[in-house]
Design a protein that fits this description.
mainly alpha; MetI-like fold; two-stranded antiparallel sheet; 2 strands; about 65% helix; about 0% strand; transport
């Protein structure tokens, strides 16, 4: 009898060997791509046009801030002539002139570094304070959580723009990039702390955290090695959006006259100086406002893309 022929006996049936390919059943697919939260997020982001648009704008703004002379050779302040006050665009001055006769395009290009510096310093300050307060409050809990959370509530109840106005008014003799960044950032961190605290409260209940505690790993090491790295994703989203908000805050303070001194080039100062000429020379207000709006929009768009990419539920709905 052949091996492929089923064997029949009294009360039982033996199937041929070819019909039970155990090797195929037990085979492991080794060619599947590796996957984790960050890899999945990158695969999702790179398929979205909004990510590339915002990334190009952000990289362009950073490049302009570091290398302004590559985009314009016109001095922003040294070549100002009142004869060109609110003048129309010319060959070398593609956006026209301000009321003081300065080149608008040159001032926008050279003011990029100031506005971006304030945004970066504020973001670093709020991120560091938010991580410290949120991580310790969420992980250790108890009285430490109560104290840190109440401190965050106090700062959260104070509008950071209003607080920055008061601080800059008191320290009007020391108005510079670092002082205005401290004035904004010292009251803007509670949002980051709240987001991180909520995420840590969720993550610290995971099995791998309990396993680390069971083998005797110290709480601080668990926080640094296991809990914080798995809780940082929402902070990245908040940080990206906050950078744009910090740039707007600097422009708002300068517009109100309590921000950077007039001798410092920034988009906020140019917008503040141009408001009186809105009817007669609207270009002096429109162009720096466009630079501010496009930059802030790019950071907000990037934050939205990162948020959706790091949310598995949002990825599943698309």
């Amino acid at each position: 009898m052949s091996n492929n022929t089923p064997t029949r006996g009294p009360g039982h049936f033996v199937a041929p060997l070819e019909e039970t390919p155990l090797v195929a059943v037990d085979a492991i697919k080794l060619d599947e791509r590796k996957s984790n939260l960050w890899i999945d997020a990158w695969r999702d982001m790179r398929r979205r046009p909004m990510f590339w648009i915002s990334a190009v704008i952000i990289l362009l703004v950073i490049f302009v801030a570091f290398f302004p002379t590559l985009f314009t050779q016109v001095p922003p302040n040294d070549d100002c002539q009142l004869a060109n006050s609110n003048g129309a665009p010319t060959g070398e001055h593609i956006l026209g002139f301000t009321k003081q006769g300065c080149d608008i395009f040159s001032r926008i290009v050279h003011g990029t570094a100031t506005s971006l510096s304030v945004g970066i310093i504020v973001t670093i300050l709020t991120t560091v304070l938010g991580i410290l307060f949120g991580a310790f409050a969420g992980f250790y809990g108890g009285w430490l959580d109560s104290v840190l959370s109440r401190a965050g509530d106090i700062f959260f109840s104070i509008p950071y723009i209003l607080a920055a106005v008061v601080i800059m008014s008191v320290f009007s003799a020391y108005r510079n990039v670092f002082v205005i960044s401290l004035a904004i950032g010292i009251f803007a961190w509670p949002a980051t702390a709240r987001v991180l605290r909520a995420e840590i409260l969720r993550v610290k209940q995971s099995d791998y955290v309990m396993a680390a505690q069971a083998v005797g790993v110290s709480n601080f090491r668990i926080l640094l090695r296991h809990v914080l790295p798995n809780s940082i994703a929402p902070v990245i989203v908040v940080t990206t959006i906050s950078l744009g908000a910090a740039i707007v805050a600097e422009a708002t303070l300068s517009f109100l006259g309590v921000g950077l001194p007039n001798s410092t080039m920034s988009w906020g100062n140019d917008i503040s100086a141009a408001q009186v000429d809105l009817r007669t020379a609207p270009q002096t207000l429109i162009y720096p406002s466009l630079a501010l709006s496009i930059t802030v929009l790019a950071f907000i768009m990037m934050g939205e893309v990162i948020r959706d990419a790091l949310d598995p539920k949002a990825r599943a709905q698309r």
